[in-house]
Prior knowledge:
Elements: H1 2-5, H2 12-18, H3 45-53, H4 67-80, E1 84-88, H5 91-102, E2 108-112, H6 117-130, E3 133-137, H7 142-148, E4 153-159, H8 171-181, E5 184-188, H9 193-196, E6 206-210, E7 224-228, H10 230-241, H11 250-260, H12 263-282, E8 287-291, H13 301-307, E9 314-319, H14 322-332, E10 337-338, E11 348-350, H15 362-367, E12 375-378, H16 384-395
Parallel strand pairs: 2-3, 2-4, 4-5, 5-6, 10-11
Antiparallel strand pairs: 1-7, 6-7, 8-9, 9-12, 11-12
The structure holds ligand 3LM.
EC number: 4.4.1.11
Family: Belongs to the trans-sulfuration enzymes family. L-methionine gamma-lyase subfamily.
Pfam families: Cys_Met_Meta_PP
Amino acid sequence: MSSKDSKQPYGFHTLAVHKGYEPDSQTGSLALPIHQTSTFVFPSAEVGGKRFAGEEAGYVYSRLGNPTVAALEEKVAALEKGEKALAFASGMAAISAILLGLVRSGDHILCSRGLYGCTFGFLSILKDKFNVDYTLCDMRDEESVTSSIQKNTKVIYIETPMNPTMQIIDLTMIGRIGKEHQITTVVDNTFMSPYLQRPLEYGCDVVVHSATKYLGGHGDLIAGIAVGKEDFLEEIRFTTLKDIGGILAPFDAFLLVRGIKTLGVRMDRHCQNALEVASFLENHPKVTNVMYPGLKSFPQHELAKKQMDGFGGLISFELKDGLEAGLSMMNKLELLKRAVSLGDVDSLIQHPASMTHSVVPKEERIKMGIADGLIRLSVGIENVEDIINDVQQALS
Ligand code: 3LM
């Protein structure tokens, strides 16, 4: 479809369905073939040498590239409006490979005060073992960002909305500060997907995803993907991806390509359902502190409207009677599943303090806004009245 792109750019849903693969001319296979191979045969010894030297294009070995994975990378790059994408075995493989590619011993990373638990865990490894320091900072305030920049700050790393508090950071501000200070800005866009937010359009440098979530959408795979400038990602491909080896398997790339075809329609439904569930929770006498960017009561509702094309499917809330009441409510659910992860067509509910963010020390967790009793609900695409009825019976 590339020849037509320049004449009349295709819309999001069209790119989601078609980009990255044309039915192959030999067989006409409509679905993307799964190139389940570890290695690729060279037509001659000389060609093999040239491919290794980077003097001739062509596949070599699936840890360095695979056609099924390449189709996925092309599709996600187009959706995120980036030059290039690079797929990984998990979101954490993507995040760790990108950060390892950007820093060296003695450098500093400035992070949002609010990060997925294992991202926080990886920062602790960098600090304890590799002398790469980090600071968590409240990035809702520009002054606090600029005053936290150090001479050795090489990366600004953020989540927006943050997992699980849904706090939002102004992407225009982060993109601008990164350019002004020549610091690479990395945005974890997992909670939004490219359908709802495209950080590169705001001047940020790199987007990372846990593709396990909305991109895959069906709770049947673990994957990660990074999007950004071609030169940078090719360097990552031939360093921290190749030499650590956290690559995506062809079958998982196939599942992702299939999942992404319906990303936009799924996200519309997630957003509609979540707004109704959030409004129900906000009006329930036993519930307090509902965090959903689509609610008018959400402190950053206006910023959410400015930079997000929808408010997503995640809601966090507390019960007035605290932790015990929250866990008891989770145990009474019949339709909603008690499970970590998010962005699946199934509604999933979890308790961050004891699950996704249990690796974050309590003092830091509280500073992030993750109270002991906080519950996170990933609203699926079921009939919304069934989701609400289940929550209502569990609360009563
Ligand atoms: C979770 N999150 O339930 P993988 N970035 C963000 C994430 O939410 C996650 C990752 C990266 C959850 C997973 S907790 C054991 C389950 C914003 C994952 C990491 O490596 O693909 O899991 O992505 O919040």
